[in-house]
């Protein structure tokens, strides 16, 4: 990120940026989708470890003196675990990219950069990338 901005300054380019913070990103990862991706990446023994880590989790809500029924947890990466950032990064690894923008990710934060001599063109490239990401996030 710093190198890209420094490059723009050295070349006297316009550096257009967009910074995204994905709200509740770790909580919104669907287990089925994550496991589908993990199955294609890892050997079966690693996949089965991750599967056992994510499946068969349940929760109960206790408002006041009553208690809800037990419900399955179908989404979310358990935060605080050593594997959480790895699992999240693997889940988002297939986000769309474009040849005219640079991306930098840190956990659930994403930076998009475009450096051009023309500010309108740089903004256009950022908007194109944002449009692609919007579609990806909805899916």
Automatic annotation (TrEMBL):
Q: Does the keyword Nucleotidyltransferase apply?
A: yes
Asked if the keyword Nucleotidyltransferase belongs to this entry, the reply reads yes
Which PROSITE patterns does the UniProt entry name for this protein?
RT_POL
Checking Pfam families in the record gives: RVT_1
Keywords linked to the UniProt accession? Nucleotidyltransferase, RNA-directed DNA polymerase, Transferase
One MF term from GO for this chain? RNA-directed DNA polymerase activity
Boundaries of every Reverse transcriptase domain copy: 1-139
Q: Which PANTHER family match?
A: ENDO/EXONUCLEASE/PHOSPHATASE DOMAIN-CONTAINING PROTEIN, ENDONUCLEASE_EXONUCLEASE_PHOSPHATASE DOMAIN-CONTAINING PROTEIN
Q: What is this protein called?
A: RNA-directed DNA polymerase from mobile element jockey
């Amino acid at each position: 990120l710093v190198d890209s901005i420094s490059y723009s300054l050295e070349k006297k380019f316009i550096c257009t940026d967009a910074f995204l913070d994905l709200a509740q990103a770790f909580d919104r990862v669907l287990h089925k989708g994550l496991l589908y991706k993990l199955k294609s990446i890892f050997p079966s023994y690693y996949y089965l470890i991750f599967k056992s880590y994510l499946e068969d989790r349940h929760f109960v809500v206790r408002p006041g003196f009553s208690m809800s029924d037990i419900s399955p947890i179908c989404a979310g990466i358990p935060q605080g675990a050593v594997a959480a950032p790895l699992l999240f990064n693997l889940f988002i690894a297939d986000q769309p990219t474009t040849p005219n923008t640079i991306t930098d990710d840190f956990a659930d934060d994403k930076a998009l950069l475009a450096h051009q001599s023309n500010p309108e063109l740089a903004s256009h490239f950022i908007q194109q990338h944002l449009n692609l990401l919007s579609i990806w996030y909805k899916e």
